[in-house]
From TrEMBL:
The lineage of its organism: Bacteria, Bacillati, Actinomycetota, Actinomycetes, Micrococcales. Keywords: Oxidoreductase. SUPFAM superfamilies: NAD(P)-linked oxidoreductase (SSF51430). The keyword Oxidoreductase applies. This is Aldo/keto reductase. Residues 4-275 form the NADP-dependent oxidoreductase domain. Coiled coil: none annotated. It comes from Microbacterium panaciterrae.
Amino acid sequence: MSAIGMGAMTITQRPDADVAQGVRAVHAAVEAGITLFDTADAYGPSGEMGVNERALIAALREHPDALERVIIATKGGHTRGPEATWGIDGSPEYLARAARESAQRLGLDALPLFQHHRPDPRVPYAESMGALRQLVEDGVVQRLGVSNVGVDQLQVAIDILGAHLVSVQNEYSLPQRASEPVLRLCEERGLAFFAWGPLGGRAAAKSIADASAALSGVASRYGASPQRIALAWLLGRSPAMIPIPGASRPESVRDSAMSPSLMLDDEDRRMLDGVVQ
Ligand SMILES: NC(=O)c1ccc[n+]([C@@H]2O[C@H](COP(=O)([O-])OP(=O)(O)OC[C@H]3O[C@@H](n4cnc5c(N)ncnc54)[C@H](OP(=O)(O)O)[C@@H]3O)[C@@H](O)[C@H]2O)c1
């Protein structure tokens, strides 16, 4: 798996999304060597399920060899309602159906990585995890991930899913480090930690340079964008860390893809550790 992934949500997130530009962004990611693409059945601008999964698979199919090189990591457990409202369903029946529908949409016999999107407070977490395990046993999915979890929930997932669990996807960025204990548990247990919102989300990503004078100062010293510096900082936080920056423009993807080769020196790293919290 590449050192960073691409958050594909961003290519269809807005009702006025430029689909052709999103396709170019996916192709730019493949060409830059990115092999992990994150999506979810619930992503899209509307209440319709599967919009983002369909857009991602169509873009990948248009690129020669892409499908042989990449891992599509989708998610299930969120629902969409009228007027694009968000809901949640962690029941075993719903998760079993959601995974099968995602596999069908993506044209895959088995999902390479199926992530439980978010714990459902109305369903004991162990029940949702039991449903995920069953999906592996039934051959619907190859590997499992969980998302938006605390340490206690992650421990339940580890106990029930064992070696089938390979990844955790939580929010983590310079300004948002609440998942630090989860990151450390991932490190201990050999799980990948996919950082969502690694640039602080769409609104903040645009102004991340303004948000921190320290970040802009470091960026100008390295001749790199503040976003690339922020991703390089994240990569240095832990060997488990795999940021999945979202992008709707090919330029963003190309720039982010250069972050793994940018080495921050210790002084700059320490300064960034101490700011934008
Ligand atoms: N598990 C969950 O509950 C959950 C929740 C939210 C998101 N996610 C996943 O995480 C992914 C990333 O999160 P996010 O999209 O919310 O936030 P983000 O990655 O922090 O920010 C995305 C924004 O950053 C901009 N950007 C990316 N790289 C850049 C660069 N090198 N230079 C300048 N701008 C850059 C993009 O701009 P352009 O659009 O202009 O290219 C995009 O609008 C999503 O796409 C999704 O797959 C998961």
